[in-house]
Amino acid sequence: MNTNDFAKLKLFITGPTYLREEVRQAGMLPEFGHRDSENDKRFKPIMGWLRELTDAGDEYTPVLFLGSGSTAMESSIRSLVADGETVLNVSVGAFGDLYHTMAVANGKCAVQLKFDYGQAIDLDVLERTIMEHKPAVVTFTHNETSTGVTSDIQAVCELVRQYDALPLVDGVSIFGGAPIGLKGSGAAMYSTATQKSLGLPAGFGIGFIHADAEEKAARVSDKGHGTDILKQLGRARKFQTLSTPNTTLANQMFVQLKYIFEEEGVENRFARHAAMRAMVADWVAGLPGFELFAQEGHRSPTLTTVLVPEGVSVKQLKAAKESMRAKGYLYDPGYGKLNTLLEEAGRRPVFRVGHMGDITPAMLEEYLADLGQVLQNL
Question: 90 - beta bridge partners?
């Protein structure tokens, strides 16, 4: 097999995502030494842009972890949950579950609160659970990639803080596609990544770390090395990474963030994502038997989950994936574990439409037209 055999597909999945040609070309820029003055030319502006993109202000220090959003999430668990403390993992889908998996794998005393698939966090239920278990740390997902549910981070963090616990937030699939409003949110650490709404290849986890998280980490033992946020912060304040970064990705990140701020415009980018969410909602409304899955008022601006009509199976959705591949697209037939659980419970499965990163409304319109034809033939 050679590279000519690799399919050239337009990605409408929920990550990795479509890359602009300029971002691809930036991968050809020269490598550089990560402890050299060349490093500052890339990472100093990158760190500043990251602050602006989240509205972090001076409350948070951005850190680049080598790996993915999961790396940043696990670092928050390792560094901020002390021995003898309870961590409450709140889940509205598979990636909320991942926080719990990480907590258990790292030997933490972990309790899980799960909400029904497609539903957002119920603050009353959350409050009762916090009162029962008295956690020192609470984790939750800002934008659940498996279900398309978005949480109100201000409201959740405010409730968690009322009980003197630290909120840890997974924002992997929304960062770069919608306003975050991190300053004043109350989040102790906000974890995200490059390969979704930011429109870049995978390779960096990104953490925004508050001063009180730094203070707490100083009192936690056995934080590991790469997962120790104190070690990470020491280098981040020098505009560096803890160990050797992917400098190709750093070049691409510089080019992409410069484009977002100086060409597209941040507000225009956010408005484009909101417009594409509306486009998909209108499209679903025109498909007999199909329905939006996520709770109204909590629907993601970066991806949409769609309930299929009665009688349509996961097997048929996977067959639709191959039909769309023949048309030149990579279609998302739904998060595998979620659809398995839905089918086992006698419920209808879902598929996902990724409309994040640098996908344009024109690209999405073309995709939805072709997908609609395939779905009508299920």
Answer: 113
